[in-house]
Design brief:
With 333 residues, this protein is mostly helical. The chain folds into two domains: 151 residues, no CATH class; 156 residues, no CATH class. The chain is built from ten helices and no strands. Helix 2 packs across helix 3 and helix 3 packs across helix 8. The longest helix has 50 residues. The two termini are 29 Å apart.
């Protein structure tokens, strides 16, 4: 346990120092966890290299098709929604001026003037922040390219890479470390596949609800929910809060309140039904452990820490259990 604790501390310091590289490797492992089973099945009828290429092409077509459909739907609604937003904002102003808020019209006008004055006074700062954001986009694209490059080798020859790493360890401890590594991969792959299923289920539920409520941009908001669900506990409420703002501007306060109620309902479904059912075959963690992990990861590494905290803790717990048992199963597909 002392050795594992020391290794965990050293690993954290290295991750913090070389964060872009660590993110790229993490993304590569995520892609490998998703595409490895697809490549394995294609490998039954195709050579390994061709099976890996076909798996990536299928994934690319699926992702590109999804974003294309989302973009077309958003573009088709934009003209109608602009007028709807203008009407909705006026409706919100009237609602705030009435009971029980009784907000003075001049207060809303003053708020608009203050926002405009702030933007005008800090225009240079906002432009500098935008340019800084552009450089961060370039860095993100570089990290994504490195992650994709690593994932190809993880999918194609992950077993051989792990065997080489294991053989560099002292011979007396190879068997136990081999079992720990296989348990770590099993936990990580199970978590990634499980969280994708949870995110997809959440997105479908949100999309159906927003469509029935006639909230504009239902499909893009469902995609946002899918992406946000990868951050446990705080991702889904954030996405639904954005959806409630859109509903408030387009459909009025009643619809916005219904969307806010969805935060509670979907949170209960996710916490008490989806996670216990879907994650039962991965490493089970207590909700308190999940909450502490997310908050600690956010404090340590920001948004990236919030995303990687739960899978990291799941892997660490799987390794500890494997070391205690002194054995493990075969490497999963």
């Amino acid at each position: 346990m002392l050795l594992l604790g020391t290794l965990a501390y050293v690993a954290f310091r290295l991750v913090a120092r070389f964060q872009p590289v660590a993110i790229a490797v993490f993304l590569g492992l995520v892609v490998a966890a998703v595409l490895r089973p697809v490549a394995k099945r294609l490998q039954r009828v195709l050579p390994r290299s061709l099976a890996v290429v076909c798996a990536y092409l299928l994934c690319l077509l699926l992702v590109a098709g999804g974003f294309a459909v989302t973009g077309l739907l958003a573009a088709g609604e934009s003209g109608h929604v602009t007028a709807q937003f203008d009407t909705g904002i006026e409706r919100v102003k009237v609602w705030l001026e009435g009971a029980p808020f009784h907000v003075r019209p001049s207060a809303l006008t003053d708020l608009q003037h203050k926002v405009s004055s702030f933007v005008s006074a800090h225009r240079s700062t906002l432009i500098q922040n935008a340019l800084s954001g552009a450089s961060q986009v370039v860095e993100a694209l570089t990290v994504a390219a490195l992650g994709l490059f690593c994932s190809v080798f993880f999918v194609h020859s992950g077993e051989r890479m792990w065997a080489w790493t294991r053989d560099q360890l002292p011979e007396g401890g190879r068997e136990r470390w081999d079992a720990a590594g296989r348990a770590a991969w099993r936990a990580f792959a199970g978590y990634i596949r499980g969280i994708i299923l949870v995110a997809a289920t959440n997105a479908i539920l949100v999309g159906i609800a927003l469509f029935l409520l006639r909230v504009p941009f239902a499909v893009p908001l469902a995609v946002l929910e899918f992406l946000a669900a990868f951050v446990p506990l705080i991702g889904s409420p954030f996405a639904l809060a954005v959806a409630s703002v859109v509903a408030l501007a387009a459909r009025g306060p009643v619809t916005a309140l219904i969307v806010l109620a969805l935060i509670v309902v979907i949170g209960q479904i996710e916490g008490h039904l989806l996670h216990p059912l879907i994650m039962s075959w991965a490493v089970s963690l207590h909700p308190v452990v999940v909450a502490i992990s997310v908050i600690t990861g956010t404090i340590a590494l920001g948004f990236v820490g919030a995303v990687v905290a739960v899978p990291a803790v799941s892997v660490a717990w799987a390794v500890i259990q494997s070391v205690r048992r002194g054995g493990g199963d075969s490497l999963p597909s």
